[in-house]
Amino acid sequence: MHGLDRKMRSGQQAENAMIYSLMESMVRQRLRDKKGQVYCADCLAQDLQQDPTEVRAAMDALAPRQNFSAGPCPCGQTGLTLRW
Ligand SMILES: [Zn+2]
Q: How many angstroms is it from 15 CA to the middle of ligand 1?
């Protein structure tokens, strides 16, 4: 019984990690497609039709790993753009 319980829990964790990295790759892909254009989390979330909280988390997670630079989003908020 305990073994099954543990198995289900680790399966759930793997699923969450997969959703998270899928969001990261969607964000990265969009910023790559729109190279040079600044996106804030809200506009990117709207563009991708995703939850802004998750998009922001993905941007935060990606920022230290990607060549992002901050800039002004057309909506007036501070956003990120991919730099090459
Ligand atoms: Zn914006």
A: 30
